[in-house]
Design brief:
By secondary structure, the chain is mainly α. The chain folds into two domains: about 70 residues; about 80 residues, Zinc/RING finger domain, C3HC4 (zinc finger) (Herpes Virus-1). Helices cover about 60% and strands about 5% of the residues. Strand 2 and strand 3 form a beta hairpin. The termini are far apart. About 10% of the residues are buried. The structure holds zinc ion (2 copies). One zinc ion binds next to loops.
Length: about 160
């Protein structure tokens, strides 16, 4: 092979190397671009996550608050209750103002501590779930001895 042949081969090799470098460079550029895009996406994702985390936290707090309010025994479960007995000195026929049925011997009744009005325990239980006052005299139903109820009451 003569000198010209070597030159051609050298030229080809150089061209090949140059092409390789260009490809590498382009590859690098692409990689950098891709990296930048990835970083941007990561940032956006992190922002989205932060937002979601914030929302999740807010939602969790709401749920925790609900749970905390629901955690304590229901108000009516803390009210004193007893089987109705005429012997307790009440009028011979007392009506439950919620269902308008008489309180009968042996039926479980609850008496509101504040006003001493008495109702069927189940009737009062259903009542205090939606209302916080006595069905007869509107006296606020307060159960002492439970922080949860006191807190819930303060917040209203
Ligand atoms: Zn009743
Ligand atoms: Zn009352």
């Amino acid at each position: 092979m003569d000198l010209a042949g070597y030159n051609v081969i050298f030229g080809l090799v150089m061209f090949f190397l140059a092409t390789l470098m260009v490809i590498c460079c382009m590859g690098n550029c692409e990689t950098e671009e891709e990296e930048e895009r990835n970083q941007r996406e990561a940032l956006e994702q992190r922002a989205a996550r932060a937002l979601t985390a914030h929302e999740a936290l807010a939602a969790r707090r709401a749920v925790e608050l609900q749970l905390k309010q629901a955690a304590g025994p229901p108000v009516h479960a803390q009210l004193p209750y007893f089987p109705y007995a005429e012997a307790q000195g009440w009028e011979s026929e007392m009506l439950c103002a919620i269902c308008l049925d008489p309180l009968r011997q042996g039926q479980l009744c609850s008496e509101l501590p504040a006003c001493r009005h008495a109702f069927h325990r189940d009737c009062l239980g259903a009542w205090v779930k939606s209302k916080g006052s006595c069905p007869l005299c509107r006296e606020t139903i307060v159960v002492l001895g439970s922080d949860d109820v006191a807190v819930a009451h303060d917040m209203v």
